[in-house]
Amino acid sequence: MLTKYGKLDSMTNITPHHFRYSFCRNLANAGTAIAVIKRLARHESVESMMIYVDSSYEEQLKALKKM
């Protein structure tokens, strides 16, 4: 199903994992509490949630440029 609808938007290699990651990352970027994201994603531990709140290289550069 993800492949079918991904092709409609010219997206390739869409997997359930990518979809889940994007969902959780967008929640984290919107300021959603990590405990809420953990519950929605059905993760066992908060430590596994760090991939969603860890800043990207671009986000780090943006933060430095604000200084």
TrEMBL record:
It comes from Gracilibacillus halophilus YIM-C55.5. GO terms for biological process: DNA integration; DNA recombination. Transmembrane segments: none annotated. GO terms for molecular function: DNA binding. PROSITE patterns: TYR_RECOMBINASE. It holds the Pfam family Phage_integrase. Keywords: DNA recombination. InterPro entries: DNA_brk_join_enz (IPR011010), Integrase-like_cat_sf (IPR013762), Integrase_catalytic (IPR002104). This is Integrase. Residues 1-65 form the Tyr recombinase domain.
